[in-house]
């Protein structure tokens, strides 16, 4: 269940019921080391909309460099609705000091509380290998093609969406969550679990603004073109330029802005 009904008092008078998106914590625990002396590390406690929790964890671990596309996926076990255990392969390299947080990760931020922010900023993120080039007309069409599939937003008006499209403009996958970074992690994790490889031939569309951590997730998953309905931040633009990713903002049915690497878009 991703939403629930609440009773409210309307300004016009009287009471009515409204559907709101669920927001609950998810504690992601990483088990690492050898079976004889394994350790457990609370990687993140994130506020998310329940559903696709394994996908969220896998996408998060890939985006932050714990997992790689060409590795065998770790096993996982959800002990309670809000606790997920991920078991890395025996002996897999993992330094918990790079991922320590001072608190929980809110639904508004993917890296809040990370004590080793330098680890993210200095990571050698892969540059998109794709030679993908698409038309201006295709980019203009994508946000409107995404909107009818945002079912939870249609019901609650309170969630973000991240969608991947192929070069024909067909929707491949869409995920929604109260946290935009969670929605992106769920999308990446879905692709990982389906064993379809990096998103090198995909255009990813965000329903809102684009910040640093969303560009980081896009780069880690091989995305060549990232489209946002809202504005990019300065650090998002800087990172997109550095990793060779085409970053588009303020995407509307009539126009959009290209902030970095415009060669992938034919005008």
Structure description:
The chain is an alpha/beta fold and 267 residues long. Helices cover 25% and strands 29% of the residues. It contains seven helices and 14 strands. It has helices at residues 53-63, 117-121, 136-146, 151-156, 180-193, 212-220, 234-243; strands at residues 3-9, 15-21, 24-32, 39-48, 75-80, 83-87, 134-135, 160-165, 171-177, 203-206, 225-228, 246-249, 257-260, 265-266. The chain has a six-stranded mixed sheet, with helices on both faces. Helix 1 (53-63) packs across helix 5 (180-193) and helix 1 crosses helix 6 (212-220). The protein is globular and about 60 Å long. The termini are far apart. The model has no long low-confidence stretch (mean pLDDT 90).
